[in-house]
């Protein structure tokens, strides 16, 4: 599947806010890794416990999938929301 990008395609950077030992975080990362070849996004895994501000912001609400300041989903990957976000160009 190809996504329209107006002639210039930039790879979308996605961030997953996680913490060590989080089973849901591992599941979301695995699901995203399976989709990455098809959808062509970059993926950054950020441990919230390494940053007090992120720890306050997300606390127990991890994992969180975000594109910049836009939160796409949390706890579980919502594949259709991710696809819609990427189709709209972020």
Structure report:
The chain is of the alpha+beta class and 90 residues long. The chain has a domain at 15-68: 3-Layer(aba) Sandwich (Glutaredoxin). Helix content is 37%, strand content 23%. The protein is built from three helices and four strands, in the order βαβαββα. A four-stranded mixed sheet has the order 2-1-3-4, with helices on one face. Strand 1, helix 1 and strand 2 form a beta-alpha-beta unit. It is globular and about 35 Å long. The two termini are 17 Å apart. Mean pLDDT is 90; it is low at 1-9.
Short description:
The protein is of the alpha+beta class and 90 residues long.
Give the arrangement of secondary structure elements.
Blueprint: E1 13-18, H1 23-39, E2 42-47, H2 52-58, E3 64-67, E4 70-74, H3 79-87
Parallel strand pairs: 1-2
Antiparallel strand pairs: 1-3, 3-4
**CATH architecture tag of the domain at 15-68:** 3-Layer(aba) Sandwich
Shape: globular
Q: Give the SSE string.
A: EHEHEEH
What's the pLDDT, averaged over the residues? 90
What structural class is derived from the secondary structure elements? alpha+beta
The main pleated sheet reads as: 4 strands, mixed
**Strand line-up across the major sheet:** 2-1-3-4
The tally of beta strands, per DSSP, is: 4
The radius of gyration is: 13 Å
Bin the strand percentage.
15-25%
Oligomer: single chain
- CATH level-four homologous superfamily name of the domain at 15-68: Glutaredoxin
Q: What is the top-level CATH class of the domain at 15-68?
A: Alpha Beta
Summed up, the helix count is: 3
Low-confidence stretches: 1-9
Helix content: 25-40%
At the third CATH level, what is the topology name of the domain at 15-68? Glutaredoxin
Distance between the termini: 17 Å
């Amino acid at each position: 599947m190809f996504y329209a990008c107006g002639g210039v395609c930039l790879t979308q950077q996605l961030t997953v806010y996680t913490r060590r030992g989080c089973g849901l975080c591992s599941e979301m990362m695995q699901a995203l890794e399976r989709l990455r070849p098809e959808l062509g996004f970059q993926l950054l895994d950020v441990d919230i416990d390494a940053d007090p501000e992120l720890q306050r912001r997300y606390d127990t609400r991890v994992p969180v999938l975000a594109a910049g300041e836009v939160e796409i989903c949390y706890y579980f990957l919502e594949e259709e929301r991710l696809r819609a976000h990427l189709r709209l160009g972020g």
